[in-house]
């Protein structure tokens, strides 16, 4: 028996629904179902009776619910009491790729701090691939990432926004006036790619290879500002998200859509087996609601 299992069971009991419990706790429905099943197997009892999609506690389930609620409440009080005594509260560790930290995160974090000043946050910049690995080994609590990864389903995840990759060049570059560009158009250009742990890099290299071209990568960098300074010279091109080009009107840089488009999903990931603290649950809920109200890309 684990605290996660008890939390999943109690939430399903309160919501009378596995679907609603999964939505509230930001986990999958199978995760809730498995937790309930494991509790029933461990204690040899039946916790719920089902009438259609409605869950109802059995007599054994009602007794178990009272005790489980007491345990969770006691654990929360224990954590609150000793956190208060020590005045040490572990910060929420959030990973984010450099590109997303430029456009996707500042306003969110500012709004979060204004509403929840009591929750400390440590922000770490990593490419999406490494950020996911660090979530898996518990170095990070949650990460905002490019979700176009083959193993993304091994994490709990939620999509926050849709975007697309654009090819960025200076306004006086020979390709600047094009409505869209192909890998053939870009193959001979001097290209600046992000570091190896970038999902975008993997997608773009695969696109070039599928089209029978080899990208002319002359530099790798994780620094957006530095990369754009090189692009402004007119000799280089780089790849950014379309949402970042809103601020390019006065920067001598233009973003050109790719043909065919390279579309991506931006979202949050967190470990499936991890206990979700109150602070983390607050952040997950706040972030999802924030981007519903302030969509990065109009759908």
From TrEMBL:
Protein name, UniProt field: LysR family transcriptional regulator
PANTHER family xref list: HTH-TYPE TRANSCRIPTIONAL REGULATOR YBHD (PTHR30419), HTH-TYPE TRANSCRIPTIONAL REGULATOR YTLI (PTHR30419:SF25)
Top-rank lineage group of the source organism: Bacteria
Keywords, comma-separated and alphabetical: DNA-binding, Transcription, Transcription regulation
Protein family per UniProt: Belongs to the LysR transcriptional regulatory family.
Taxonomic lineage from the root: Bacteria, Bacillati, Bacillota, Clostridia, Lachnospirales
Residue ranges constituting the HTH lysR-type domain according to the UniProt record: 1-58
MF (Gene Ontology): DNA binding; DNA-binding transcription factor activity
Gene3D superfamilies: 3.40.190.290, Winged helix-like DNA-binding domain superfamily/Winged helix DNA-binding domain
InterPro entries for the chain: HTH-type_LysR_regulators, LysR_HTH_N, LysR_subst-bd, WH-like_DNA-bd_sf, WH_DNA-bd_sf
A Pfam family: HTH_1
CDD domains linked to this entry: PBP2_LTTR_substrate
Entry's Gene Ontology cellular component terms: cytosol
């Amino acid at each position: 028996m684990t605290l996660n299992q008890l939390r999943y069971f109690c939430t399903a009991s309160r919501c009378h629904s596995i679907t609603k419990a999964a939505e509230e706790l930001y986990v999958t429905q199978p995760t809730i179902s498995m937790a309930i099943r494991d509790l029933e197997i461990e204690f040899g009892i039946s916790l719920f009776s089902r009438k259609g999609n409605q869950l109802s506690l059995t007599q054994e389930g009602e007794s178990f619910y009272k005790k489980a609620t007491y345990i969770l409440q006691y654990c929360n009080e224990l954590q609150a009491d000793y956190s208060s005594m020590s005045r040490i509260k572990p910060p929420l560790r959030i990973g984010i790729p450099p590109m997303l930290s430029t456009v996707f995160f500042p306003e969110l974090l500012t709004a979060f701090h204004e509403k929840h000043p009591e929750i400390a946050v440590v922000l770490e910049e990593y490419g999406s691939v490494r950020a996911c690995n660090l979530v898996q080994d518990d170095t990070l609590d949650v990460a905002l990432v490019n979700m176009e990864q083959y193993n993304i389903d091994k994490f709990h995840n939620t999509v926050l926004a849709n975007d697309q990759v654009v090819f960025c060049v200076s306004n006086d570059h020979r390709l600047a006036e094009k409505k869209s560009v192909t890998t053939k158009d870009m193959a001979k250009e001097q290209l600046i790619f992000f570091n190896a742990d970038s999902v975008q890099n993997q997608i773009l290299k695969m696109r070039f290879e599928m089209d029978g071209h080899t990208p002319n990568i002359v530099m790798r960098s994780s620094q957006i500002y530095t990369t754009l300074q090189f692009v402004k010279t007119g000799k280089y091109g780089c790849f950014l998200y379309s949402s970042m080009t809103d601020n390019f009107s006065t920067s001598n840089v233009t973003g050109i859509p790719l043909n065919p488009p390279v579309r991506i999903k931006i979202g949050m990931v967190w470990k499936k087996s991890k206990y979700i603290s109150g602070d983390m649950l607050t952040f997950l809920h706040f972030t999802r609601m924030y981007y519903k109200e302030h969509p990065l890309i109009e759908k």
